[in-house]
Design goal:
By secondary structure, this protein is α+β, with helices and mostly antiparallel strands. 34% of the residues lie in helices and 24% in strands. The protein has one domain: Nuclear Transport Factor 2, Chain: A. It contains four helices and six strands. The strands form two sheets. The protein has a four-stranded antiparallel beta sheet. It has a two-stranded antiparallel sheet with strand order 1-4. β5 and β6 form a beta hairpin.
């Protein structure tokens, strides 16, 4: 082996042993999904509308429709939906009618735009819930319009960027 080839081989081996490598290219800095409060509110509203649309297309005898509702929820909202809808499915409960949104408006937003609260009014006057024997499960005291505060959290797996994380009754904010 020539002296030149030997030196080249030694340099190559030393480079491998000492971790000499090309510098990695810099990783791009991820851009925030939402660049303004208006964008975040719009995405949150779109998410809630998709969640209600999935709920309106719910067929408790078809588990695939349950998954469509779960797809739009996370955390406490998802847990509550799974508990209730799984029980209803097992008991043969039938839900009919449509939830109509009469109000969806911004309530609050975190500074980093990752958590949005909406004031919502759900008109549930046409929604019926019946046991398998036909008994009405809706309480006589249920208001025909529900006044709610809905929390949505940013989620990278959601097509809108948010998922419904909590749904609470509210007494403040705009009237329904």
């Amino acid at each position: 082996m020539s002296r030149r080839a030997f030196v080249s081989a030694v340099v190559l081996v030393l480079g491998l042993l000492t971790g000499c490598a090309a510098h990695p290219s810099p990783s791009p800095t991820p851009s925030p999904r939402f660049t303004s409060k208006a964008d975040a509110y719009k995405a949150a509203e779109d998410t809630y509308r998709a969640y209600i649309n999935a709920t309106n297309h719910l067929d408790l005898s078809d588990p695939a429709t349950l998954e469509n509702v779960y797809r739009w929820a996370t955390g406490g909202a998802r847990d509550a939906d799974k508990k209730t809808l799984t029980r209803y499915h097992a008991e043969g409960v039938v839900v009919s009618g449509q939830i109509r949104l009469s109000l969806v408006e911004p309530r609050s937003i975190d500074g980093d735009l990752s958590v949005v609260m909406l004031n919502v009014c759900n008109d549930v006057s046409s929604v019926e819930i019946r046991a398998s024997d036909g008994t009405n499960l809706v309480k006589d005291t249920r208001s025909p319009v529900q006044s709610l505060a809905v929390e949505l959290r940013e989620d990278d797996h959601s097509p809108t960027g948010f998922l419904v994380s909590e749904v609470l009754g509210r007494k403040d904010g705009p009237p329904c």
